[in-house]
Structure formats: structure tokens, C-alpha cells
Amino acid sequence: MALPPLDSPQWHSPLRAFLWGARSVGSTVLTLVLFATYLGIGALAHDTHFSLGWTLASTAFVWAGPAQIIVISTLGSGATIMQSAIAVTVSAIRLFPMVVSVLPMMRTENTKRRHLILVSHLTAVTLWVECFRFLPQVPRERRIAFIQGLGCGLVCVCLVANTIGFLLAANLSALLAAAILMLTPLAFLFSTARNCRELADVVALVLGLALFPLATMLDSGVDILVSGVVAGTIAYGVHRVRALA
Amino acid sequence: MSEFIGDWHALAVLFVAGVIPNQIWRMLGLWFGGGIDEGSELLVWVRAVATAILAGVIAQIVVQPPGALASVPGFLRYGSVAAGFAVFLLARKSIFAGVIAGEIVLLAGKWWLG
């Protein structure tokens, strides 16, 4: 599905832009990955004796797959709430630089912060990746509406997947559960790799992968933050050196 | 209806361990990113750090696997990522082809190991 050209009257109304965003759910393979992942989360929640309402609330209000998996599996394993909260807080740090880097792409001079609250909430890996792909094809003043549509569409797909997964849970084998958990790293890796535009992006990705096992040796509790800031800063250094050369 | 929602305790736990730890970073991002200029150098650094932290999340799932994935031996998890990445590159950066290839290696390997 192709989006209308930038000067098309299709973009005149924010509602139309929202609907184009929602329809774009159908033009990314990441929707399939999300569907399968949230099917798995629904099944996992069922097997760990959480209710369906709880599962749907976690998808709507947390909206970060890895965090939801951590909450369900650590609480299911008998860890304390605090241990679970700390683990989730650390893995969620990525959302901060993602929101920071996505918002300037859709802001105009008239944008107030409150207009950006919903898109901030909807920002997660999939939306972050797709912003870089879709937004150049969307007129600036309609980008917020478009991303709200895309994000709400993705949430709806995942709520449906949660419900199906929850109801099917009794039939989910350990093999299938492992395969579903493996979807997240595979899809995150390839979608980030596809988004790499300059050498610095590649350096950030490769070093980020390579430094994490080293950072775990520090056992600091914030290993992801340590490896991420170090790798990201080196990548930025590469960008600076190339800009100067 | 109470069966749908479950007990209030679980919802409170969701709020403390799930909602707050995620929303705190998003709202900080909103507060900070709402005023940053699109062409600024700071943003280049922030984007690099975001990519690297995401890479860390990817590595964490593969190195310290959650739940059922822990039953898959390490070499199979790494093999799945490597095979998926090779196919991703060969298929001209197709996410779909890469994910399918990685999953096939994982499932076939686990089935073969029994």
C-alpha cells in the first residue's frame, strides 16, 4: 500500500491522516511479528495465572513487549515486586532516547507538549523503527495524527492477539513458546539493521550487541545502560570524525 | 466480570512493576525531546545511544533468555540469530526472510535435539 503524495488533498484532514496511519499497520511485516509476540504474551499470562483483563491492561498501558515478558515471568517465578520493577525500569531506559529522537520529527512550531503525550506513550521499538521509514512520506503538520493512527492500530492488533493467545494457552507447547520468545530479538535486530543509514548507526548496533556481554561482567544492575551509553558514544565519535574528514 | 479483571493486587503490581517503570522514561523523553531541535548534534548522539541500548536489549534476550527460551541451548540461540542475519542480508534486507530463517533454525535444531 502506497501513501498519497505529500501535496495530496488526502492529507488535509487530521482524521484522514490518522486513518492512513492505521491502515499502514497492514504494510509492515513487524505487525506480524507483534501479533505472534503478543499471542505468546497472552499465553504466558494465562499460564502464569494472570487474568485476561490484566493482560489487556498491561498491553494498553505498558506497551513494551520485553517489559511485559519480564513482569509476567519474574512475578510468576516468585520474585518480589521490587526486583521485577527494577528489572523493567532498566530495560525500559531505551524508551527515553527513542522518544527524544522521534518527537522532533513530528513537531511543528505550533505543537504543544500535550499534543505529543499520546505519541510518546505509543513509542516502542516498532513505532520508532517505522517512524524513520514512514514519516518522510507524511506532511509535517499531519505526522502526529498519522503516528497516533499507526500506534493505535498496532495496539489494537496486539490486544486481539493477547485475547487469542490467552484463550489458546492450554495448547501452547514449550517449543512454540520458545519460538515466540525468539521473535523479539530477531525482529528487533533486523529492523534496526535495515534502518542503519550511516556508519555510525552500524557501529552503534554492532558495539551495542558486543559490549552487553562485557557489561554484564560488571554486574552493575544497569548493564544495558552502561553498554548502550559507551557504544552509542563511540558511534557518535565515529560520526564526528567522519563529519570532520 | 471479576474473573476477567482478577484481583486488585495483581493490577497494583502491574502498575508498580510495569506501567510506572516504562512511562517514567517516556515522559522524561517527552519533557526533554519536546524542545530539542531536529538538526542538533545532541540528537545524533541520542539516536546512537538509543540504537545501542536496543542492541543491548536484543543481546540480553539471547544471552540471558527469559522463560521457555532458556530451554534452548545457547549455541542454538546464537545459530538462529546468525542464520537469520545471513538470510536477511542475502534477501536484500528482508526482515521477514530473516525472522523466518532464524525461527526455522531454532525449531529444527530443537526438534533434532529432541
What does this structure look like?
The complex is a heterodimer of chains A (245) and B (114). Chain A is mostly helical and 245 residues long. Chain A folds into two domains: 184 residues, no CATH class; 48 residues, no CATH class. Chain A has twelve helices and no strands. Chain A is globular and about 55 Å long. Chain B is mainly alpha-helical and 114 residues long. Chain B has a domain of 43 residues. Chain B has five helices and no strands. In chain B, helix 4 packs antiparallel against helix 5. Chains A and B meet through helix 2, helix 3, helix 4, helix 5 and helix 6 of A and helix 1, helix 2, helix 3, helix 4 and helix 5 of B.
Mean of residue pLDDT values of chain B: 90
Instruction: Provide the β-strand percentage band of chain B.
Output: under 5%
Parts with pLDDT < 50 across at least 5 consecutive residues of chain A: none
Q: Overall 3D geometry of chain B?
A: flat
Task: Note the quaternary state here.
Answer: heterodimer
Tally the helices of chain B: what do you get?
Answer: 5
Global outline of chain A: globular
Radius of gyration of chain B: 20 Å
Q: How is the biggest beta sheet of chain A arranged?
A: none
Quickly count the helices of chain A.
12
Tell me about the biggest sheet of chain B? none
Query: Roughly how many Å apart are the termini of chain A?
Result: 41 Å
Distance between the termini of chain B: 42 Å
How many strand segments of chain B? Answer: 0
From N to C, what is the helix and strand string of chain B?
A: HHHHH
